[in-house]
Input
Amino acid sequence: MTTGKIDIRFSDPAATAPSWESIDALLDEAQLYWLTTVRSDGRPHVTPLVGVWSDGQFAFCTGVGEQKHLNLEHSPLVAVTTGSNGWKSGTDVVVEGTAHRVTGRERLRPLAEAWLRKYGDDWAWDADDEGFTDGDGSRPWVYVVAPAKVIAFGKDPHSQTVYRP
Output
């Protein structure tokens, strides 16, 4: 990502743009994210989910029958958010981009290992050429979102910073 550009219209005059490295770390360390997809009739669908920030992209998985999967079949445009619910502390981040399905064991295996490192045995996946697998017969598809734009909302002082590739 490039250096962030602070938007003075929505920022305290004392605010400075956080480094991309700090935003990258926040995305990497987050435990919970919110994914926004769009239904075929145009209504938004928002859901919390776990995921990993890997090689500058957000990775998540979904079951083939889940609403987010159905929405992605209609439109791959998504927003991913993470942050805190506090008003005066922390940083909220929005990643806008296009979700692309990941296939191939050689690409999926490192992502399964990243889930295990981050979340432990609660999210222990194996991988085959189509997606993640587990002992229960679950076979979620895996997607990555390469950011088209990332927006960081600082809270002390309040600021809005935009990063673009």
